[in-house]
Write a structure and sequence with these properties.
Elements (H helix, E strand, L loop, with lengths): L4 H5 L9 H9 L3 E4 L12 H7 L15 H12 L10 E5 H13 L5 E6 L4 H7 L4 E6 L11 H5 L6 E7 L11 H14 L2 E5 L25 E6 L11 E6 L2 H13 L5 H11 L3 H22 L15 E5 L5 H10 L6 E4 L1 E2 L13 E5 L4 H22 L1
Parallel strand pairs: 1-10, 3-4, 3-5, 5-6, 6-7
Antiparallel strand pairs: 2-8, 7-8, 9-12, 11-12
Helix pairs in contact: 3-10, 4-10, 5-6, 5-9, 11-13
This protein binds pyridoxal-5'-phosphate.
Length: 398
């Protein structure tokens, strides 16, 4: 028997592959500060459980394949606050933003078709596209340019007859970069000129710092028929385990076909949809409080990183990530060493190696990503451990 080439070609998630090492190390009594995965520590708003507790039913029935109307209406209202109008049938509820990316890729790509993605990108895009034999064509962005997009000429050079879409997360994971309006307009222009879909992954929307707004691609005019906006409650509402996301598009042919995929997997968990509807109903003041909290943590991480000799990083303006260059040859080896060999009073940290966030061979080897998902006290301590760990590592390796 032989497994499919498709599955064999998939790579392990770089964010999770070192977890067994951390688990082993923790069994020895060492404390590990986890900055490797985007699991927020902020309490899920109470309205989530309240709505579920108040849901009066004797049978947990299948939900509608397209999703619970109460949740769809709440997402409509969420977009309406920014002047973006989606009809009820424009929104399909998915198992997290993850399923939303997979379904969108299935709908726009045949095997061998290409999707442009600015790199470094959310590493699971490799999995979502690989599952359906679509190919990521990376648009390389650089730390020195704050991971903003290159000029239009550079991007259109990558377009072939097989290019079907441009996919990006905004705010970006792992870059924390928020696209400027001119970049969003440029994407829209390229998509119109080359007849591409735009898949705008907005699972971190609202998490924008320094007074930036971080607007939805849905505010850009003239792309209604080609725009697919992806949503999730995981990050903004700190509800990763709820597994609730959504695909939103004005393209009726696209959504009617996505509905077939929704029907094939029957439905998304009923109770979590009820809870998620309450989350989308939270006022903007909730999002403002989250922003303030993450901005403080971003500042702690940035102030520490920018002081460490040899570290190269730009100040990110959104989401809760940082990607930076380390003064080491191989970031993964350093991260494993931090786990296995280093400790400061019985404590160490775990960060994510960044190579897997790139599609271009050789890029990201000396880079790592931090998710600032710990409170201020723990962040300060974790960053101190990183600084001391790097000092010790360089002594050992010189
Ligand atoms: C950019 C981006 N998109 C999508 C997802 C998937 O999120 P979920 O499936 O939890 O909604 C993540 C998770 O980290 C992400 O960072």
């Amino acid at each position: 028997m032989k497994l499919s080439n498709r599955i064999l070609a998939l790579k392990e998630s770089p964010v999770r592959k070192l977890v067994p090492i951390a688990t082993k190390v923790k069994k020895t009594g060492k404390k590990v500060y986890h900055l490797n995965i985007g699991q927020p520590d902020i309490k899920t708003p109470e309205v989530f459980m309240e709505a579920i507790n108040n849901y009066d039913t004797e049978i947990i029935k299948y939900s509608f394949s397209a999703g619970e109307p109460v949740l769809i209406h709440a997402i409509q209202d969420y977009f309406k606050r920014d002047g973006i109008i989606f009809d009820e049938e424009d929104i399909l509820i998915t198992n997290g933003g993850s399923e939303a990316v997979t379904f969108s890729t299935i709908a726009v790509c045949d095997p061998g078709d290409e999707i442009l993605v600015p790199e470094p990108f959310y590493t699971n895009y490799n999995g979502f596209t690989g599952e359906v034999n679509a190919v990521i064509k990376p648009i390389t962005t650089k730390a020195e340019e704050g991971y903003h997009l290159p000029k239009k000429e550079e991007i259109v050079k990558l377009i072939t007859k097989k290019t079907k879409a441009i996919l990006f997360s905004n705010p970006g994971n792992p870059t924390g970069t928020i696209l400027r309006l001119d970049e969003m307009e440029m994407i829209a222009e390229i998509a119109r000129e080359y007849d591409l879909f735009i898949i705008s992954d907005e699972v971190y929307r609202g998490m924008a710092f320094d007074g930036l707004e971080g607007v939805s691609m849905g505010t850009i005019k003239g792309i209604e028929d080609r725009l697919i906006v992806l949503e999730s409650v995981s990050k903004r509402y700190s509800a990763c385990g709820a597994r609730i996301g959504a695909i939103c598009s004005h393209n009726k042919e696209f959504t009617a076909n996505i509905l077939k995929l929704c029907q094939a997997r029957l439905c998304v968990a009923t109770l979590e949809q009820i809870g998620a509807a309450a989350l989308y109903g939270l006022p903007n003041s909730y999002i403002d409080s989250i922003k303030t909290e993450y901005q403080k943590r971003r500042d702690i991480a940035y102030n520490s990183l920018s002081k460490i000799p040899g570290v190269v990083c730009e100040k990110p303006t959104g989401a809760f990530y940082f990607i930076f260059k380390l003064p080491v040859e191989n970031a993964e080896e350093f991260i494993i060493w931090m786990l296995e060999e280093f400790e400061l009073d019985g404590e160490t940290i775990m960060i994510a190696p960044a190579e897997g966030f790139y599609a271009t061979e050789g890029l990201g080897k000396n880079e790592a990503r931090i998710a600032y998902v710990l409170d201020e006290v723990q962040m300060t301590r974790a960053m101190y451990i990183l600084e001391k760990g790097l000092e010790a590592y360089q002594k050992v390796n010189n």
